[in-house]
Design brief:
212 residues; Rossmann fold; 10 strands
Length: 212
Amino acid sequence: MHLPKTTLPPALNRCALLCIVALVAGCDIIPPAQTDPTRFFILSDSGHHAGQAQGGLRIGLQAVKVEGYLQNRDMVVRTGPNEVEFRDYRRWAEPLERAIGRALQSDLLASPGVSQVWAEPFPGDGERDFDVSVEVTRFEGAATGSGRYVASLSAIIEISAPGANPRIVARRQFTAPDESWDGGDFDRLAGLLSADVAALAREVLAEAPAKG
């Protein structure tokens, strides 16, 4: 006894064939590699050192502190008095505490009146004329009320006399002058903030007591 052959309608045959082809082709498709859009930025310093100035100032630079919101590696743009934006794909290449400390040390050493700048931890045999602590409260791009953007750095500088009886000899708030930024060129923002750190170094030396 022979069973009758079952023949599928042509439309169903074509549909089944297309499904099989699509399934096989799908197994061979590899998603294209995605380019990482993240860009990383660094702070630059003065690029030159005055060298060992005979009889120049010997400075101890304590570890730089930054506000909590600046400890995020994303670059920050302040859009209002109490509002900031973290730019996910624009990041500092290193923690800001380290980057600002490195640039500040280099900028201080560039002064012809400075012979040495030690960063914490200080060497036991290195005599210091004064110690400097810096707490950075703003380090970002900022939108102004007029709709323009600027680079913004503010910091508290504290200078103290080291020794057996350390004492604070100067303490002040420093705010760098506003420099225009277009709100989108983050390489320029990093350059402007680098210049602000150099201005901060000059302010430290201006506030430092004269060497006796």
